[in-house]
Amino acid sequence: MFLNSSDHKNLAQIYTQVAKVNPKIGYTTVYRTLKLLTRLGLADQRKFAGGETQYEPTSGRSHHDHLICLGCGKIIEFEDKALEALQNGIAQRHRFRIFHHRMELYGQCGECRSKKVSKRKG
Questions:
Q1: 5 φ, ψ to 5°?
Q2: What value does the CA radius of gyration of the chain take, rounded to a whole number of Å?
Q3: pTM score of the predicted model
Q4: In 3D, which of 116, 91, 109, 114 has the Cα closest to residue 101?
Q5: What is the dihedral of CA 39, 42, 45, 48, to 10 degrees?
Q6: Which distant-in-sequence residues (6+ apart) come within 8 Å of 29 by Cβ?
Q7: Among positive and negative, which fits the CA dihedral 35, 37, 38, 40?
């Protein structure tokens, strides 16, 4: 269920999904399982812009970065080989070995920008 999903979910959302399959499961059990999956490298724990902790599965997924909308909270995942090459080049110039990295870009998505423009017109 969670490991087959491709989006970011908070603990409450994951619990709701699991409880549909097993109504007797406890909230704490889901929380502990997510912590274990994170420790095992099967899930990533993210906290975007000081918001609620979210989880995403890692298995079978390539490295990606995030665009986070400060208006609606939408998270857009993206991959960019040129950007990765640039980061690796910078690390090499500084004789630095990268083990992992995380890029989060915060702004406003197209939908929120459109809503803001339409409010000004109306």
A1: -85, 165
A2: 18
A3: 0.67
A4: 91
A5: 160
A6: none
A7: positive
In tens, the pLDDT along 52-99 reads 888 988 876 778 889 999 999 888 989 999 999 999 999 999 999 998
- Do 46 and 101 reside in the same domain of the chain? no
Query: Is residue 33 pLDDT above 90, yes or no?
Result: yes
Beta-sheet strand order (sheet of 43-46): 9-10, 54-57, 43-46
Nearest by Cα to 10 from 61, 48, 67: 48
Taking residues 40-46, report their average pLDDT. 87
Query: Which CATH number belongs to the domain containing residue 94 in this structure?
Result: 3.30.1490.190
If residue 56 lies in a helix (H) or strand (E), which one and from where to where?
Answer: strand 54-57
What is the spatial distance between Cα 107 and Cα 88, in angstroms, rounded to a whole number?
A: 25
Domain membership of residue 50 as a residue range: 1-61
